[in-house]
Amino acid sequence: MKRLPFEPPTDHYDQKIEQIDEKICKLIKQRKELSNNNPGFPHKHLISSWSAKYHFYEDFLNGVFSHFLNEELYKPFVEPKGFVKNIPILGSFEKGDVFYSVPFISQFENVSVVHLSIDKGQVSEEEMHRDHSFYKMSIVGETEYDCRNEGGGGSSGHMSYRYIVSPPLPEDRSKYKIVFTEIKGPFNKETDFEFAI
C-alpha cells in the first residue's frame, strides 16, 4: 500500500522550542541506541507515574511509546520498476493442514517481489472469526535485504501476500533462504512459529 505524502497539520511553529525539539530527537536516538533498537514498552505503573508527574494523559503517553515500536512503518517505499521476469520457486512448507508456498518471485530492475500463498484444509466458523496470523519475511544470505509486506488478501481457506525485497534477489537460489515468522496482534508480536523456503 502506498503511503500518502505527509502534510504538516499546521503552518505555525514557535522558534523558541526548536532547541527542545532537537533535544527530543537526540534523546530518541539515544534511547534507540541504548535499547539496541529493541525498545520494549514501559510498564503500566511507569506510564501512570509519568502521567501524574508530568501532567499528561496516560493514553497520550501510551501513544507516544507505541510509536517507538513502529519506526519501520515509516521507512520510504521502494516501488517496483521495470519488470524483468517471473522466476518459478515452487518452494513449500506444511504444518498440520496448512500448506505454505512460494510459487514464484517477480523480478524487477530495482526489487524482487516474493509471493506467499497459504492454503488451509477445513476452516470452521469459529476459526474464521479468530485473529488470523500475519507473516514477517526476512532473507538470510550474504547480502543484507530490506523486506516489506505490501499487503495481501484472500478467503477463509486461502490467503496470499506480496513482499517487496530490495535490492533484487539473485537468480541463484543457493545464495539465500526466505524465512517467514508468524506475528499476531495489534503490535505485531512474534510467535514461536517460523519456517524457511
UniProtKB/TrEMBL annotation:
<protein>
    <submittedName>
        <fullName>Uncharacterized protein</fullName>
    </submittedName>
</protein>
